[in-house]
Amino acid sequence: MYLEQYTAFVILAPMAALVTLGLMAYVWRYRTMPEVSVLLWLMAAVVGWLIFNTFETVAVTEAWIFFWAKVTYLFIVATPVAWLLFALCYSGRSAACTPRRVLLYSVIPAITALLALTSNWHTLLWQAYAFVPVGHMVAMQVSYGPWFWTHAIYSYILVLTGAVFIIRYSLRLFNLYRQQMVWVVSAALLPVAVNILYVARLIPGLQKDYTPISFAGASLALAIGIFRYRLFDLKPIARDIVFERMPDAVLTVDVQGRIVDLNPVAQALTGQSPGFRIGEPVTDVIPVWDAWLQMLQATGELETDFVLDDDGHPRDYEVQISALRNPRRELTGWIILLHEITRRKQIQTALRQYSEQLEAMVAERTRGLQEAQTKLLAQQRLQQEIELAAQIQASLLPDHVPVFAGYEFAAAAIPSRYVSGDLYDFIVTDPETCHIVVADIAGKGVPAALLSSTARTLIRAETDHETSPGRILTSVNASFYRDLTQAEMFITFLTARLDTRYGTLAYANAGHTAALWWRQASGDCEECPATGLPIGVLPDATVEERSLVLRPGDALIFYSDGIPEATNTAGEFFGADRLSALVHTYAHLAAPELLQRIMEAVESFVGSAPRSDDITLLVLKVLPRTLTFECDAALDNLHMIIALVRRAALAYGDSFAYQVELAASEIASNVIRHAYRATTGRIRGTLHLLPDRLQLDLYDDGASFDPHTLAPPALGEIQEGGYGLFIAQKVVDELSYTARTAQGNHWKLVKVA
Question: Which of 234, 363, 372, 622 is the most buried (most CB within 10 A)?
Fold first, then answer.
């Protein structure tokens, strides 16, 4: 009986190896896929196991039998690890296949391989072994040592874990993919079952391990999955990452026009469960599919618009269709992406209606003027309506400037006529954030004023859900482009977002005049130039965003081109240089006074000459301010304290911020480690930002000490501790400690800019 088992193995093992090699040859074409590359390693391990186990079986000497048995173990230990990696990649868990993880999975197999190669000197793997004749063959019979069972249990865990991953994943997929998964899971469980039968001796008289033979059955199961169900042509594993999480509706259609997959957004779009739609004609959802298909057959791709009726409510979509091809470049289907643009269409429709109403108003006024009996009456009517427009526009401008601790605003707007094409606004979105808006319509009079009002509405609507100035202006351009093109106008826009806590200002400038940044540290004016084209020039133009860090004493001047382009009776321009000189001279004044000096200088320069353009001027002064914080005195909170100090200190320069951060870190950690060594408590801080210095006050209720008792660390000697206070003293200009004040122990750090 035993001879028949060994003879059958010698016959079947090479056949199993050939089957596996054939499958490797077929799968090789898909080797660029991560899971296929791992599958190839798995098959290589199986082939090695089969070949060298066959060598062990047919060897005629005990030395060679023992040698091939040890070599075979190199492939036995590699097989479970390769299977787990295949299951992880195939089920969408590639993040768990990093080199570090692979090394971790391979620790026990590597130890097992080493023990197999050195089994002459220990009994950890094989406690005892003997060579017995089986007909004309010699078989090696072993009793297993403790490490064998450790590795066996670990191998079962790896293989069963991989099978569980694929089983769980298959339950989440649609019916189209479940038959694929049945074959993959069968391939996983067959070798496990056969190996358990052999190791546990569940079949009486079974002496030969047929586990490598069982991998032939596993290879056959994989082959059926590959050939019959095209396992790697339309692979479902990326659905969780791409399909399921996309914000747009996505449908996959086969070459017969049947829906084979759709994501949750598409499910909501169709109003049906996914199982109901799978396999149905795509024309049930998209009636115009046949017309699109004719265009797709010519180009292979299609971009178009589509309107879907949703219970009587039309919904607009941008449609992108691309061909799906397998690695042999054969067409396997189409992927349809539906991006809803209903809101954009509604905005465009509203703007179009507004433009049509505006055109109707202009036409009506024109007819009224033509029908007027006298020129005086026509002028009076026009005057009245212009004054009304001026009143309406004035009502849309801010009636007061925002108030933030540590900042001072001033604003003024003077139209060249009764109504202005300029626009400014302050939009406070939260207690610490203010958006500053300045715009200039390329035109004057009523049309420019009406467009500026529309622009104000758009910018406020965008600010409600967007914080980035660059993205705000890019979105305004996309929504406003068509109307501006029809009116043959454009708008220069500057919008900035001020973080009043940390003094950071992010701005985007769509072709507007450059703002002036007067820096108290250097006493110079710097320009904040345009970062994009004006609104309405190009339909898909984007506006970049830049950032500033403001320091107490700094001033920002936002203005329209009506100031530098103001002309006097001699035809001379006021100019940007004259404006910069004024700012340099009066930058020390409060914001309202600085604004008044600039407006007076422009008025004096123009004299009796007519105003050629609207004038808008905004002044922002950065004042000294105080930041406070309080937290538990724990090392886990140290990074929060340091981050706040560094972010506030960046206005004084990177080197300055680094030194203040270093000193604050040393003092705060000293409080946490020593003042609260035996107890817990709170640490409180006050950060004073001044034009020429930064002061940090730290308070605690912990144990106090006398800093004068600490000697400076001796140079050349190695000692533990004592360096923190010494370092802090070296990087700041003033460092003092007062114990038991009314607010607690007080550390005072001063750094002069």
Answer: 622
Domain residue ranges in the chain: 2-237, 246-340, 397-622, 625-752
Q: What is the pLDDT of residues 430-453, one digit of tens each?
A: 999 999 999 988 766 667 777 878
**Six token digits for residue 567:** 């002309």
Query: Does this model's pTM top 0.70?
Result: no
Residue 671, token pair as written in the block: 């409080």
Q: Which residues pair with 104 in a beta bridge?
A: none
Domain covering 2-237: architecture: Up-down Bundle (1.20)
Q: How do beta strands 301-310 and 126-134 pair?
A: unpaired
Domain 246-340 has CATH 3.90.180.10: no
Classified as helix, coil or strand, 671 is helix
Tokens of 20: 């596996």
Q: Which residues 6+ apart lie within 8 Å of 69 measured at CB? A: 56, 116, 140
pLDDT at position 220:
66
Report whether 507 contacts 526 (CB < 8 A): no
Q: What share of the chain has pLDDT > 70, as a percent?
A: 83
Integer angstrom CA distances of residue 406 from 211, 265, 330, 500, 689: 77, 47, 67, 8, 9
Cβ distance 745 to 738 under 8 Å? yes
Q: Could you tell me where the beta strands, DSSP code E, fall in 573-639?
A: 615-622, 625-632
CA distance 144 to 420: 94
Burial degree of 493 (CB within 10 A; 0-12, 13-18, 19+): buried
* CATH, domain 625-752, list 3.10.450.50, 3.30.565.10, 3.40.50.360, 3.60.70.12: 3.30.565.10
The predicted structure's pLDDT at residue 314: 81
Label residue 215 by pLDDT band (50, 70, 90): low
Q: For residues 742 and 739, give the distance between their C-alpha atoms in angstroms, rounded to a whole number.
A: 9
Is the sign of the CA dihedral 478, 480, 483, 488 positive or negative? negative
Strands 682-689 and 615-622: unpaired
Instruction: Provide φ and ψ at 565, rounded to 5°.
Output: -95, 5
Residue 656 — φ and ψ, nearest 5°? -60, -50
Q: Domain 397-622 adopts which CATH fold?
A: Phosphatase 2c; domain 1 (3.60.40)
The amino acid present at 597, given as its one-letter code, is R
Residue in the block written with tokens 């643009």: 341
Which H helix or E strand runs over 317?
Answer: strand 313-325
